[in-house]
C-alpha cells in the first residue's frame, strides 16, 4: 500500500492503494468514475482511454504509481452537459449503438482534434483505429470526428 | 376480463390503486393477456406502455432489453406517433422484468418490432382516442370532428384547443374504446425520421448505465476460474496462497469452477494467478485436426437427417450434363461483445435480486428460481443496458453463476469475466462445413440442388427452406450434427451468419459455370418460385425481386467501368437484404472497397437506428468473414484476447450505402438480417477481382 495523490477531472484525490493497481480500476472502483470501461485489460481495444496530462493513454495497463501527481481527464470530465464539440457531433450523427466503447472513442477523438484541429479523412481513420467498436459504428465515428472539427472551428470563429 | 379491468379503471383515482391496462382484450388473437390488475403502480399510468400526468409529463416505458439494436428508442417512437405528441416532450424509461405488464421482454431473433408493432400502435392510439373523447364531451361536440396535434386536441369551433395534460382526469374515467383508428402513414411525424438514441447523453457523459457499472451496498466482487480445456473436470484445487493475498475474502468451488471473492477487481485478478487447479481431461482433447476428422466423418455418414426433399435428386444428377460442387467451412467464433460478461446477484432466504446485462431476463428469473429454490415471483430482475451481446447474453450462464455464488457466500456479489474468460469461455458460434452440389442440364439450367451441412454442436446446421429451394425441381437438404465438448450457442443470425455466405458463394459459382449472370439467374428462379413453386415456399418472391432489382440499380450492377462486383441476397428474420460488394486489387491482394445494401424490413421506424443497424451488421459480417478465427489445441482456444483474436478495426472497413424499400408493410427484423448476405457478396466480389474462390473463413 502506498499513498498516491493525483488530480482527476480537476479534483485533487488522495489514495491509499497498491501502487501497481491500474488507473482503470482506480477510476472505476476507488473513485466511482465508471464511464471509463474495461474491455480487454491489455491495451488492445481502447475502451479504457483517458487523458494523462492531456494525452490519451490506456488506463487498463497504467499503474497508478506511474501517474502520481498527474492530471487525469476521464469522459466524466470532458463536459458534463455533453457540450464538447466531440460529444455534440456524436449526438448529432447518432453514433452509438450499444455505447460501451464510446467513452474511449470520444476521448481518443477529442485528443486527436486537440493536436490536429483539422484532420484529413486519412488522419481520422489512422487516429481512430486503435479503438475497437464491436457494433461497427466506425463510419459514423469518422463522420462525427469531421463534424466535431467543424463545430470547434465555428465556435472559435464566433469568439 | 373487461369487467375486472373496468372496475380497476374506476378505482384508479384511489391513492393506492389498481390500474387498468390497455394491453389486453382489444389486442385480439395476436396477443396473449397482458393484464395489469391489483398491482401497486404509478397512478398516472394509462397502460403498460405509457403514463401521462396532469402536469403534462409523458413517460413511455420500453420493456425490451437494450443491447445496441436501438429498441429503447424505436418502441416509444411508435407509441408517441400514435399518441400524437412531440418526440421532445417524451421521456423514455427502461422497464425492469415485468411479466404482468409485458410479453416477450427479450432481445433475440430480431423479433421485437414484428411482435409489438400492433401493441405499440394500439397503446398510443387508444390513449389518443380517449383524449379526443374527453375533449369532445367538454365541448359538447362530435368526437369525429376533433383532431389531435402535438399533444393537443383540436375541436371544430374556433379556439377549441386543449392539451392532453388537462384532459388526463376526464380521459381516465372513460370506457376503453374497443376499436381505434391508426394514423395514415403519410401523416407520420416521427416514424421513419432520423431519431437520435434516447440514451445518447448518458453514453456521451459516461453515466454508469451498463451491467458492469452496477453497484449495491455491501456488494463484493468475484471472478470465476473455469476449466481451461473444454470437457475437463476439476479434480482438485489449492487456494492457500490465493487467500493470503490482499483484498481476498474467500474462495469457493461449485460445478467444476472456482470462485474467488474479493474487495476489488484488480486484487482478484492478482490473486487468481496463484490458484492451483488440477483437472481430469477427457479422452479426446479437441483440436482443429479433431474437428476436421469429425467434419469428414459427418460428410461420409449414412445417418444424415433429411431436412427437405423435393423430387428426385439422384435421378437428376444421373442425367446431368454438368455437376458443380463446392465445400465451405467456418470455425467456432466467440461473440466478444465489448462489455465482458458480468452479473449481479443478491440471493437471500426468501427473495433474490438480480441485475445485469441479459438478453432474456425472464429466462434468468426462471433458471435462478429453479437453481436457488425460490418461487419466480420472489426474484426481481433489473435490466441494465448491455454493451453488445450478439447472442452471447441469450445464455444465462453468467447470471446463474452469480446467483449460485451469492447463495453460497450469503452476500450480494458482482461476477465479472475478464476478456480471456470471455474468449475462452464457450457458447461459441458452432463450427460447420457445407457440401453443395448442383446438376446442370445441357442449357445450363439447374435441375437439382443438394446440400449437406455438418455442424459441431450446431443442431440443424442447414435452413432447408432457403432460396433457391422452391425454385428448383429436385432438392435434397440434409444435416449431420457432431457432438463436441466445446459449448455453442446462438450467434447473431444463428447458423445463417455462415450458411448464407456458403449458399450465396455457391450460387455465384453455379452462375459462372452455367454461363449466366448471377442476378438474372436468381431473378429467373424467383419468377419460377412465384408462378410455379416447388413444394413449400417460406419467402415472398416479389419482395426478394424488389430488393434485388433495387440493389442492381443503386450499385449500377456491371455498369461501372473497372469495378469488380459480387452479389448476394438473403431472406432472414422476415426481412430481405440484397448486397453488392465492390473489390479492387491493391498490392496484389483483393480489397473490398464498397458495399451497397438494399433492405426490405417493412416500415422503417427510426431512419437513424435502422441505418446504424445495417452499417453495423455489414461491418460485423465483413469483419468476421475476413478475420474471425478461433483455433483449438488440446481442447482450449489458442486465441485468448484481442492481441491474437482479430476484430475488424476502423481502417479496415469498406464504405457502405444503405437503402430501404418503402412499402409500408408491418415492420420485420433488422438487428440480424443485413449480416448473413455480407460474406457472400464479399467472396463473390473478390472472385470477380481475382478469379479465385474463397471456401473457408476467415478469408484473410
Largest inter-chain interface?
A: A-B, 60 and 66 residues
Biggest β-sheet: strands ordered side by side in the sheet of chain A: 2-1-5-3-4
Mean pLDDT of chain B: 93
Instruction: Count all strands of chain A and give the number.
Output: 5
What's the pLDDT, averaged over the residues of chain A? 97
Strand content of chain B: 15-25%
Structural class of chain A: alpha+beta
Low-confidence stretches of chain B: 1-41
Largest sheet of chain A: 5 strands, mixed
Total helix count of chain B? 17
- Report the oligomer: heterodimer
- Run of helices and strands of chain A: EEHEEEHHHHH
Structural account:
The complex is a heterodimer of chains A (159) and B (700). Chain A has 159 residues and is an alpha+beta fold. Chain A has a five-stranded mixed β-sheet with strand order 2-1-5-3-4. In chain A, a hairpin with a 2-residue loop joins strand 3 and strand 4. Chain A is globular and about 45 Å long. Chain A starts with a strand and ends with a helix. The mean pLDDT of chain A is 97. By secondary structure, chain B is α+β, with helices and mostly antiparallel strands. Chain B contains 17 helices and 27 strands. In chain B, strand 6 and strand 7 form a beta hairpin. Chain B starts with a helix and ends in a 10-residue tail after the last helix. Chains A and B meet through helix 1, helix 2, helix 3, helix 4 and helix 5 of A and helix 5, helix 7 and helix 16 of B.
